[in-house]
Write a structure and sequence with these properties.
The chain is an alpha/beta fold. It is 30% helix and 24% strand. It is built from 13 helices and 24 strands. Helix 8 crosses helix 9. The radius of gyration is 27 Å and the shape is globular.
Length: 488
């Protein structure tokens, strides 16, 4: 007969193995407590924790619910971009012409052919035009023709999402997007003159500033609203009026604002930079496709896909995510949101990822209708971990307490630097998704989504889950709690 201790030990081991093989529908106690303190019911939550290489998830509570993921939807878009197009993929914006350059005169139209580059900056545009000047072109005797035909024209109302149309994150996509269609307003107080100078970059003539600011003493406080800013305008012009006060103690401050239409903005910026380089142009700015016979003058490559994805995820850039999403759908015909969605669906199927609840509107998460479950977002991350592009995707995620949108979270905690986490935030939505390295060196996928009116209270619960995953042992239990119980 086997000794009792042997039988008891074997039974405990068997029960532990069975428990470990069962997905835990129960939310970890510190997380549940934080949710209750935040007034968030468990019915509004989706949580999925799965250790890499394990057969079953550690936690799967509400994991089947189709929830709004906010910006964690960017993980679908960026993984698809890396996998379908490759980490070294680049967008190429071209300057072409249907005329010849003779004695510094380009006798024909200049075509700016957009490729959907998510990140052409003001400096990039200057370099393109500088290269054109270096070829001996000074005068353009024709039109500036902007070719955005790679993307189909789809309705876009920048005020529809949150009635804040000048916020850069509400900028719509364009195949020839430049500088996020934004201007930067800088406020510089002058104590001696008792004035506040407002500098606009780039200084476009279509953007007018009415400066009635009064320089005051005292605390800085809410410097933006104290200026009483007002914006009026349309696709052609914009006027900013500041009629309030600005405290000297604020020092220099600034913010970005999206104005004008894409054609008007790029046309004005081109003209401004071209004149600064000593060039002239006699024609108008218009939109049209580039004729096949137009010869190439300048080709400007973007940063690599890996670098673009890093910017999208580290800083949750919605405009860049939308550009990438439409790029996925540009298969020889003008890309639409629907064509991009079809490409993503087919790609997921090729990866054996079945997500019947998935809804993608623009691929950025800046949407009220996008949906995915915590389980399927977690399975996407598990698939990415086993893919060749894992290093690029993981490196694009904010690191807890280090950088990106996680730089201020979990400071001075054991998990600082141990988690790569994409965050998401909308009114009524909070989410996190990514990878956590536990204290034993094991990696786990973590997804946590909240859709509730009190979602703004969810951060303590999410941070508690990340800490719990970092400190759990192989049976899904917190080692610190085990030690405390053993000391009682």
């Amino acid at each position: 007969m086997l000794p009792f201790n042997f039988i008891a030990g074997a039974l405990i081991a068997l029960l532990s193995a069975v428990a470990a093989a069962q997905p835990a529908a129960v939310i970890p106690e510190p997380v549940a407590r934080a949710l209750a303190q935040g007034g968030i019911p468990e019915s509004a939550v989706g949580i999925y924790v799965h250790e890499v290489g394990a057969a079953q998830p550690v936690v799967a509570a509400g994991a089947e619910r189709a929830l709004n993921p906010a910006s964690t939807m960017k993980l679908v878009t960026t993984y698809a971009g890396l996998d379908l197009l490759g980490p070294a993929y680049v967008w190429r914006t071209e300057l072409r012409s249907d005329g010849e350059a003779v004695q510094e005169v380009l006798a024909g139209n200049l075509y700016l052919k957009g490729s959907g580059d998510p990140k052409i900056t003001l400096e990039d545009m200057w370099l393109m035009l500088r290269r054109l000047r270096a070829q001996g072109v000074r005068e353009i005797r024709g039109d500036l023709v902007l070719d955005g035909s790679l993307f189909a024209e789809e309705p876009h109302d920048p005020a529809r999402f949150d009635d804040r149309p000048t916020q850069p994150y509400n900028t719509g996509p364009s195949a020839y997007l430049v500088n996020f269609k934004a201007v930067y307003l800088q406020f510089i107080p002058d104590a001696a003159a008792r004035t506040v100078r407002i500098v606009v970059e780039p200084p476009l003539p279509q953007v007018q500033i009415i400066n009635n600011l009064k320089l005051t003493e005292g605390a800085c406080g809410d410097w933006y609203n104290r200026m009483r800013p007002a914006v009026q305008g349309n696709a052609d012009t914009a006027r900013y009026t500041f009629s309030g006060s600005y405290a000297l103690s604020c020092g220099e401050q600034g913010y970005s604002s999206s104005v004008l239409g894409h054609r008007q903005y790029v046309g004005a910026l081109f003209t401004q930079l071209w004149q600064e380089l000593g060039g002239t142009i006699t024609g108008v700015v218009r939109e049209n496709a580039t004729p096949p016979q137009a010869r190439l003058l300048v080709s400007a490559p973007s940063e690599s896909m890996a670098e673009i994805v890093r910017d999208i995820n580290k800083y949750s850039n919605n405009v860049m995510a939308r550009q990438l999403y439409l790029t996925l759908g540009s298969n020889g015909t003008p890309a639409t949101s629907a064509s991009s969605y079809a490409v993503v669906r087919n790609w997921l199927a090729s990866r054996n990822l079945d997500m019947p609840e998935l809804v993608m509107e623009n691929g950025s998460g800046l949407s009220r209708i996008e949906r995915i479950s915590a389980r399927h977002l977690g399975e996407l991350l598990l698939s990415a971990w086993a893919s060749p592009v894992m290093p690029e995707l993981m490196a694009s995620l904010p690191v807890a307490a280090v950088d990106g949108t996680m730089r201020r979270r979990l400071k001075n905690s054991q998990i600082a630097g141990q988690a790569h986490i994409k965050t998401g935030s909308l009114s009524g939505v909070r989410s996190i998704a990514g990878y956590v390295l536990d204290a034993q060196g094991n990696r786990a996928v973590v997804v946590f989504m909240v859709n509730h009116a009190n979602a703004y209270n969810a951060q303590p619960a999410m941070d508690a889950l990340l800490s719990w995953v970092h400190n759990r042992d192989s049976n899904g239990c917190c080692r610190r709690q085990e030690r405390r119980r053993g000391m009682k």
